[in-house]
Amino acid sequence: MRKTIVCLLLVCVLAFSLMPAACASDNEITVYNWGQYISDGTDGSLDVIAEFEKETGIKVNYLTFDSNESMYTKLKTGGAAYDIIIPSDYMIGMLIEENMLEPLNFDNIPNYQYIDEAFRNQAYDPNNMYSVPYTWGTVGLIYNTQYVSAEDAASWNCLWNKDYAGKVLMFDNPRDAFAIAESILGFSYNTTDTAELQQAAELLKQQKDVVQSYVMDQIFDKMQRGEAWAAPYYAGDFLTMVEENPDLAFSYPQDGFNIFIDAMCIPKGCQNKEGAEAFINFLCRPDICAANLDYLGYSTPESAAKELMDPEVTSSPVAYPDEQTLSASESFSSLPIEATQTMNDLWLGVKTTGSNTTLYIIVSVVAVLAVAAVFIVMNARRRRKKARRCK
What we know:
Layout: H1 2-24, E1 28-34, H2 48-56, E2 59-65, H3 68-77, E3 84-85, H4 89-97, E4 132-144, E5 168-171, H5 174-185, H6 194-207, E6 211-215, H7 218-224, E7 230-234, H8 235-244, E8 248-251, E9 257-264, H9 273-284, H10 286-296, H11 303-306, H12 311-314, H13 323-326, E10 329-330, H14 337-352, H15 355-390
Helix pairs in contact: 5-6, 6-14, 7-8
């Protein structure tokens, strides 16, 4: 009888202790976003997350990724639950195809009304069921005017220029890297032709000798500090970078460039869908959107927010290029699985080709053999000592 009572008490205590954790999900969301991609209160800006928490009482756990591919891998492999993710257009298309997103309840997102028609019914989400645009922007060439000429920076070939060897940065993900090579070769960013993908890979291999490193978010700091002279990066970030380093300039390469939309989505397995929709609705509110993008430098999909923004930002030809400039742009589409796998395999070949990789493998093998030899020798000595003691 005593054992029964004790067991019941333990069950009650355990259940009581778990109640706050279970209820916490109703008052908490986890956001998975690009690094440096929300106004955080620095430099007198609005702390968007703090303001949302104050207005709603919903706590925000904020985590970051550095590429669509790394975000996709994290979602695919599981092990973490996110309530909101903010991927780019082509990745949203892939997530929809793989049934990895929740349809949105737009009754909880009335501020969707402020999203301009031009940003609705996009190819990646034609029925506007799974995503709400967050920002739009472009990828261009950022260069240091102290070392790189405007003439050289007019083409992506600048990133292959041996005069800048060791001072060039390159995107560390296949889709963006291949797009730059495809621009030079005159191919579509959405080609599925194996021969064209192979040509792009060969061109990327030729670039390796001049590349300082393959990076993503680190481009921001390296270019800002003058550690590199030329790199592909996002127009929105350039406007922040140039404030700290006025020697930086931005170019829309004549070969062509990527234009993108990043949008807010709710992944399958989310813990608090209504809380996530409340956060999306909050970010769509024109005053919040304006304050957020004034700080970020990225372009807004809302005319109502644009009217509230700093005219210096909205008049920038970098953040809001004219139609003639945009005519050279192309957006990414979700590629078939076969083409994606081909690109990934070719990218691995690009990254692992060259003497440095071979040397690394040789050194690693020698190191492993050396460690193994040490253990064999030590083990032999121990056996000899034991044999002597036995005698």
